[in-house]
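Example for tutorial group B:
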């Protein structure tokens, strides 16, 4: 049975639609699930995303329900089944599930590219990726684009043979490296920056990739176009207010701008054909 972890339902428009006096109650707002790729723990993701979804609910009059999955493969299963109305997904997931499940782009961070990294402990004597020859490294999941596919491809190109071990999330990679269960692991700049300072200070970046188009916030085609446009407008507006900028900063976004499908052509150009393919 598929396991999907629902942390909380965000009915952000409750006050807007509340009955007042003798007035007839307003029509119930449209409700949508908002799936978030499980790069961090479910509890942490809920803390990070809830304020933004509450704000968007107030701005649009829509009800947005936060949801995530127990791990990235389970998240992919949900996208395959088109179970999320809206979703925050990595760029490779967007390319795959735009075609497979009819997800359409809403916005992306137009100022921040996505960079894959390999991290090791700060006190490690490992100073270059050649020293990883023959090692077992931690990665979030086979199709974690910048945290798994890109670094594994770079290691392959460099002739460095490693054994991958998938540990379900970015946070799990970092914690396993900190605990010295693995000498190194794959992640992304954004998730590394979200670690508590005490943990982040124990890691160093051994290698990082070039920048690729960032994650997508996308809507399934069943979401009415008017609602998609309303959400895009609300997210583009965030950068113009102090509150909006604070919400963006909490998620490590610079700004969110309307996106087009062609924005992810750099990902398509890599020719990745499988969710589990390590070489590009």
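The residue assignment follows.
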């Amino acid at each position: 049975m598929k396991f999907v972890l629902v942390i909380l339902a965000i009915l952000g428009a409750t006050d807007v639609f509340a009955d007042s006096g003798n007035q007839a109650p307003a029509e119930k707002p449209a409700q949508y699930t908002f799936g978030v790729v499980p790069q961090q723990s479910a509890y942490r993701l809920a803390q990070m995303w809830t304020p933004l979804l509450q704000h968007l609910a107030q701005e649009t009059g829509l009800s947005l329900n936060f949801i995530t999955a127990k791990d990235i493969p389970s998240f992919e299963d949900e996208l395959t089944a088109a179970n999320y109305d809206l979703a925050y997904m990595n760029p490779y997931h967007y390319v795959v599930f735009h075609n497979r499940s009819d997800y359409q782009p809403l916005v992306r961070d137009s100022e921040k590219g996505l960079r894959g990294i390999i991290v090791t402990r700060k006190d490690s004597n490992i100073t270059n990726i050649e020293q990883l020859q023959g090692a077992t490294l931690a990665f979030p999941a086979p199709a974690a684009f910048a945290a798994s596919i890109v670094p594994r491809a770079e290691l392959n190109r460099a002739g460095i043979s490693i054994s991958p071990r998938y540990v379900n999330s970015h946070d799990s990679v970092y914690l396993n490296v900190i605990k010295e269960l693995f000498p190194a692991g794959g992640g992304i700049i954004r998730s590394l920056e979200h670690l508590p300072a005490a943990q982040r200070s124990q890691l160093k970046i051994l290698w990082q990739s070039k920048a690729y188009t960032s994650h997508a916030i996308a809507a399934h085609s069943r979401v009415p176009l008017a609602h998609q446009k309303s959400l895009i407008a609300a997210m583009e507006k965030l950068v113009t207010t102090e509150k909006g900028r604070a919400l963006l900063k909490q998620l490590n976004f610079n700004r969110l701008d309307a996106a087009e499908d062609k924005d992810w052509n750099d990902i398509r150009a890599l020719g990745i054909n499988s969710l589990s393919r390590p070489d590009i």
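The radius of gyration is 20 Å. Compare this with the pattern of hydrophobic and polar residues in the output above.
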